[in-house]
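ugh ok fine here u go
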Amino acid sequence: MAETVDVPYAEIARAAIIPALLYFFASFWSVHLEAGKRGLEGLPKDQLPSFTAEVTANWYLILPLVALVYLLFAGFTALFAGAVGLALTIVLILGLAIAGSLSMTALRVLFWIALGLACAISIWLSVAAVALVTLALMIPAWLSGCGREESRRHGGPDTAGGAGRLCAAPMAKESGLKIGIQAVRIALSAFIVPYLTVADPVLLLQPVPGLDGFAYWPDVGYVAAKATLAVVLWGIAAFGYANGRVTWAERAWVTVAAGFLIFPTATSDAVGLVLAAGFFAWRVLAARRAGHGGRAAS
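structure:
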């Protein structure tokens, strides 16, 4: 996109921050609602991998991502940055395998210093130079067999064939059409995000005539909060669940409320917020009535 519209990548990234966060929140919210609707629960905490332990053990895998972001913000093309990021990932995986086969600590230190210098120099030369460094590591790693186990552990080149087959339909043993329909359902609550950004460009962190200085950021926060509420309502309407089954009448209710929240006017905002507050109040009262009814019956 940066190349197409001839806008610096930093500007594109800044404009995409809030929409991207809204999209990921919408996807998370959809999965949460679907899980609640189906009665699914998460794994116990003692069965979950430790985030701290994983980051501590594999922190070096973040380095290609850092290089990718740096190259993009430094003005390099997305194709070049992506190719370099992928090559550096392979270099790290194979480098770990080769370094692990060296018996002396001094040799491992020298190896990493030489590899780091080779990568730094090759990045500033060309993609071909980066590819040569990668190839220079692949040949001894694969001839000695020391790179295969490391590649499998990190999902490297050795597993690329099986990963290609990292597709959802074969993994779930379902048809591609059914997977596609389910993916659309999960992303359905995020479909409102583009309309929100068109209706109110402040979500793209763009300058707004007559709105600058201190007043700009509170407006950004308000619009972002309003957009988040619209996504929540849209998800409830799409999945028919909000801490319990939601009737079709209630789904229509929240759909209308989310619709009013799209338009950047004080009147539509007020209507949308009142409808949303009314819906949540109705759900709380309904839950309390159901609770009292259950206790009375018991």
